[in-house]
C-alpha cells in the first residue's frame, strides 16, 4: 500500500483552552493508493506556519513510499534531512506522518496499535492532570481547584507555581511558590502525586534553591528544572539535590533521549510522540529507558490524536509512571474532534479497541474548523503558561 497523499490541516477556534497553543491544532491526514486514511498530529505552539510548511517538505519524501515501511521511511528522512537532529519542525513533521502511518497499519490489519506493538500490559492507563489551574494565583485558588480535580478522580496533578519568575528567583518568589505548593499538598493529602512544572526556565542556582524549599512537600518529580540546553546546570542540580527529575518534551531523537538516560540525568522521561519521531522512535526510547529503570510519562498536551496514540503506547509500556492528560481541560471541540473518545474515569483512561490509534476523526468538524496557518499571538504571558496564572504579576 503506497502513500498517495499527505495533507497538513490547521484547525483553530475562538474557544480558549488552558493555554495560548490550546486553541489551535495541526492535524496530518495520510491517504494510501487504495483509499485507507490515517491521522497524525504535530506540535501547534509558536511555529504553526513553519510546521505546516515543514510537513509539506517532509511529505515529498513520504509520498510514493510503502506505508507499512515505517522504519525504512523514517531512516530515509534521517538520511535526507541534514538538520533533523536540530530541527523541531522537521522532527514534528516526520512524527505526525509516522503516527498516521501506524494508524493506517492498524486499520489494514484490523488491530488497535497496542496489538501491533507487542500487546498491552494494562487495560487502563493511569493519567495525571494538567491545564487544571487556569486563573489560579493565590494559594487558596490552587488549594480549592486542586480539591475539585481530586474529587473528579485524579490522584496526581502537575502545575507551575513560579508565576512570572524567569531565569532567576528571589526570596519573594520562593516564598510565594512554596505557599502554593504547600496549599496543594495540604489540600490533596500525603498520598497524592504533586508534580512541579518549571517549564525549563531557571538557571541551575535558582532551581537548586527551589528544590531545597520544596523537597519537604515530597514532589513526585521536578519537571525541566533548568533551561533545556543547560546540561552542566542539570548535572550540578542532580549532584546537589535529592529530588526526582522529569524531562523529555523537547527531545527530538532517539540518541538525544539515550544521552539523558545513559548519563543518569533523568528519573522520569517524557518523550512526546509528536516530536520524538512518532511511534517508530518512541517505542525505542521506551526500551532505552527501561534498561536503566527510568520511568516513562509521555508528554501529552496538544490534541485528541496525540492523546489517542499516547494512550495506545502507554498501555504497552512496562515502565510507565503515568500519562499526562489535558483531556478535561481541552476546549470542547478537541473532545468532539474524535469519535469513541477516551474520557478519564477515576484517574484512568480505558484503552480503546478500535483499529489504529483507536479513535476516528470527525471529518465534518475538521472541515468546519479548518483554517489557513497563522502566527499565534505573542503575549506577555508566554505560550507555555497556563492562562491567567500571571494575572497577579502583570501591570
Ligand atoms: O508539560 C507540559 O505539558 C508542557 O510543558 C506544557 O505545559 C507546555 O506549555 C507546552 O508543551 C508548550 O509547548
Ligand atoms: Mg512540561
From TrEMBL:
GO terms for molecular function: gluconate dehydratase activity; metal ion binding. Transmembrane segments: none annotated. Residues 139-244 form the Mandelate racemase/muconate lactonizing enzyme C-terminal domain. Belongs to the mandelate racemase/muconate lactonizing enzyme family. GaD subfamily. This is gluconate dehydratase. PANTHER family: D-GALACTONATE DEHYDRATASE, D-GALACTONATE DEHYDRATASE-RELATED. It comes from Sulfuracidifex tepidarius. Keywords: Lyase, Magnesium, Metal-binding. Pfam families: MR_MLE_C, MR_MLE_N. SUPFAM superfamilies: Enolase C-terminal domain-like, Enolase N-terminal domain-like. Its EC number is 4.2.1.39. It catalyses: D-gluconate = 2-dehydro-3-deoxy-D-gluconate + H2O. InterPro entries: DgoD-like, Enolase-like_C_sf, Enolase-like_N, Enolase_C-like, Gluconate_dehydratase, Mandelate_racemase_C, Mandelate_racemase_N_dom. Gene3D superfamilies: Enolase-like C-terminal domain, Enolase-like, N-terminal domain. CDD domains: MR_like. It is an enzyme of class 4 (lyase).
Amino acid at each position: 500500500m503506497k502513500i498517495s497523499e499527505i495533507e497538513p490541516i490547521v484547525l483553530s477556534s475562538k474557544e480558549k483552552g488552558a493555554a495560548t497553543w490550546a486553541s489551535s491544532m495541526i492535524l496530518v491526514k495520510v491517504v494510501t493508493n487504495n483509499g485507507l486514511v490515517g491521522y497524525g498530529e504535530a506540535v501547534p505552539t509558536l511555529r504553526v506556519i513553519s510546521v505546516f510548511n515543514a510537513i509539506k517538505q517532509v511529505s515529498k519524501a513520504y509520498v510514493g513510499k510503502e506505508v507499512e515501511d515505517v522504519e525504512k521511511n523514517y531512516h530515509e528522512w534521517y538520511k535526507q534531512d541534514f538538520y533533523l537532529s536540530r530541527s523541531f519542525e522537521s522532527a514534528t513533521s516526520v512524527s505526525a506522518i509516522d503516527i498516521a502511518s501506524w494508524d493506517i497499519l492498524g486499520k489494514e490489519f484490523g488491530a488497535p496499535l497496542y496489538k501491533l506493538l507487542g500487546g498491552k500490559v494494562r487495560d487502563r492507563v493511569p493519567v495525571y492532570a494538567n491545564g487544571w489551574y487556569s486563573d489560579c494565583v493565590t494559594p487558596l485558588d490552587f488549594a480549592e481547584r486542586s480539591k475539585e480535580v481530586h474529587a473528579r478522580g485524579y490522584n496526581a496533578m502537575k502545575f507551575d507555581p513560579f508565576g512570572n519568575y524567569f531565569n532567576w528567583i528571589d526570596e519573594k518568589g520562593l516564598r510565594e511558590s512554596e505557599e502554593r505548593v504547600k496549599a496543594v499538598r495540604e489540600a490533596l493529602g500525603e498520598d497524592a502525586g504533586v508534580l512541579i512544572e518549571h517549564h525549563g526556565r531557571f538557571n541551575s542556582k535558582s532551581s537548586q534553591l527551589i528544590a531545597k524549599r520544596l523537597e519537604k512537600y515530597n514532589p513526585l518529580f521536578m519537571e525541566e528544572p533548568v533551561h533545556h540546553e543547560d546540561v552542566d546546570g542539570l548535572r550540578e542540580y542532580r549532584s546537589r539535590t535529592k529530588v526526582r527529575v522529569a524531562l523529555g518534551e523537547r527531545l527530538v531523537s532517539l540518541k538525544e533521549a539515550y544521552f539523558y538516560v545513559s548519563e543518569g540525568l533523568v528519573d522520569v522521561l517524557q518523550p512526546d510522540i509528536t516530536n520524538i519521531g512518532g511511534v517508530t522512535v518512541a517505542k525505542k526510547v521506551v526500551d532505552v529507558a527501561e534498561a536503566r529503570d527510568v520511568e516513562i510519562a509521555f508528554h501529552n498536551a496538544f490534541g485528541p490524536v496525540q492523546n489517542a496514540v499516547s494512550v495506545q503506547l502507554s498501555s504497552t509500556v512496562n515502565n510507565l509512571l503515568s500519562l499526562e492528560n489535558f483531556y478535561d481541560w481541552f476546549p470542547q471541540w478537541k473532545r468532539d474532534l474524535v469519535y469513541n473518545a477516551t474520557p478519564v474515569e477515576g484517574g484512568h483512561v480505558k484503552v480503546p479497541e478500535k483499529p489504529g490509534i483507536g479513535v476516528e476523526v470527525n471529518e465534518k468538524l475538521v472541515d468546519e474548523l479548518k483554517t489557513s496557518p497563522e502566527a499565534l499571538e505573542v503575549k506577555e504571558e508566554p505560550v507555555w503558561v497556563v492562562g491567567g496564572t500571571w494575572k497577579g504579576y502583570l501591570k
